[in-house]
Amino acid sequence: MNFSSIFKSISNFQFPYTLEENSIHKTELWTVFHGIRKADSVPITAFKANKNSGTDELITNCLQKAKVMKIPGLCPVFEIYDSDPNNTYIITERVSPFNWDQLTTYQRNLQALQLGIAQLLDTLKILEEFIIGTISPESIYVNEKGQWLIFGLELLVKRSDVNSHIFSNMSKHYYTIQGFTTYSNDYKTVDALNMYHLIKHFLSGKVPKDWNTAMNMLSKGSITCSVFLQKIVNSQTWLNNRLIRLDKDLKEIHIKDAEGKFIIMSTFESLYFESRQTFSNMSPGFIVGAIIPELISIVNWLQTPQSITNKNSKILHFLAILLELTDEHQFYPKEFKELTIQMFKLPDRQIRFLLLIYLPKLLEPLGKNDITNRVFPQYLQGLSDSDVTLRLKTLKTVPVIVPSISERQLNNELLRYLAKTQVDPDVEVRTWTILIMTKVASTLSASGSRASILGTAFTKSLKDPDIKPRLAALYGLEKSIDLLDVSTIAGKILTVIAPAVLDKDPLVRSKAKVLFNKYLEKLESEAASVATDTKDESQDIDFDNYGTNDNELSEQFMTSLRLNSPSLEEVNTLKKSSGAFQNDDWDSNNAINEDIQWGDNDAWGEETAFENNNIPVLNINNLQGKKISIDDSWNNDILEEQEPITHTTKSTAGKVKPKMRTIKTTSSRTLTLDIEDNENINDGWGDEW
């Protein structure tokens, strides 16, 4: 139930807090809710009073004391709303009930438990003039800095004002309502006995030996809590507990200047590296609320010009602790995000190397947008750094950062740097380059030139003088087989692998041969599933004897020519009927040449002719020969586009202007010889023929 809605209806008063629907804790007297202040979103805790006739007097005393008791160690009160008896609230800073379910875990770090006990004893020392009377497991709360606090002043009374009879009755009534065990109703011993049992509950029989004497006195009520504290502060257990000393410094750090804060955090640094387990299994909030914010503050200060000399080494140490603690507690405040981005800009190689170690854990808290725009440009510089260790470490983290960068950064900027590291002087860098290419191959743009990029990269590495890059290239080809289509494999990849089969190293040869067969099997598998496009089955050809049976065709052709040739009698008849041709001297021929009119275009396929209408035509139709069959040839498609050529011979006995020869094409497959019969035309060969 959201109790803010109830407040809105009370006297038209707007409740300035938003509470969560579900309570975090509940007793017979109080129901506890987490919430935030509407004005500035500050986290708060609201204690709603469960008022009734049996609890009214106890709650009223608690409200009165909470208004005036501003004591360190008590839950700090922001406001009290008690105008409506049915809706009474105590608003404090964000606190949570001690998690008793985790007590076994906390007991693994006894120093941390002793610190919490010391914090409670410090509070009781301040309140030594008062009787609290309500110290119990239910009254212990922890704030966001991990400090143990006390809530519940239902029986609080000043020692000088106490009425033993009234206090005894109220104490009995309180423990009856709460259902707690009563150890004492005597105001003189109640706090001592309650604290004794609380300490035993925390330590579960692991009370330090040098505390035993004081504990015995406390169990009898013969000393107060403040006296008990005085006795144990000089024990070796107390003096050796560096958390207690650190906690006292942290409580005062807000009043220290920058150098004072630096000294305190240097103490923490020394303690952390000396004994890491000291800060494990602590109360929630100590690391997150007290340590991490101060680490961020001190690292930011060390980047200023006013800080100490040799500050980079201190930044490195503090940053290492900060990165480890934020990851362990999964706590990344806004200030941490900005600080980390600034750290990537520092030129110090050790700091950049440290950031690379934690890069996989920083991607989520930093966010993809900041990785792309603010971190990646600085990150790329590590691939070209002069220090080989940093180059190699940067290279190894490429697969980590690839999912957080843009496609342009991957396929353009990053690949350019990888092309440089592939020819790096260091063999490990060259080897890791091809391994990284293999790991990011699936993220490269498939629509682009992925196959070409991979083929080029693997080819270069297969030519590397060292065996490691060559083996890495074969490994990459094996892992990338599913990323390459069969066309790319046939056209590029097999030609990449084939030279490795002749490698001088037997291991490379062996692996290359196996890989070649693996790719070949993929091609054969694909070929088996390819549908044939030919209607007729293909027949094998014996090319050794291909074309050797041309003699038969030649004989057929010559026989055809003989059958189509005119007989001698026909030729003599032709001579008698046509007469002899008249020939002019050479000048006539020159005149003919000068009068030939060539067209502007001498290309094939256009019709031209000799222009002379006075030339007699030789036409011997009666000597028409037989048609000669010509088989189709390899260039039949070209021939089909041309018309058959018709030859017409015209001659003259005098000075003539001959027409150009006309060439016509058809799709006919026969060649016909047409000769015009004209007795007045000389055939030009003479009577001897």
Automatic annotation (TrEMBL):
PROSITE patterns: HEAT_REPEAT. One of its GO terms (cellular component) is nuclear pore. One of its GO terms (molecular function) is tRNA binding. HEAT repeats lie at residues 375-413. One of its GO terms (biological process) is tRNA export from nucleus. It comes from the Eukaryota. Signal peptide: none annotated. PANTHER family: N-TERMINAL KINASE-LIKE PROTEIN, SCY1-RELATED S/T PROTEIN KINASE-LIKE. This is Protein kinase domain-containing protein. It comes from Tetrapisispora phaffii (strain ATCC 24235 / CBS 4417 / NBRC 1672 / NRRL Y-8282 / UCD 70-5) (Yeast). The gene is TPHA0B02940.
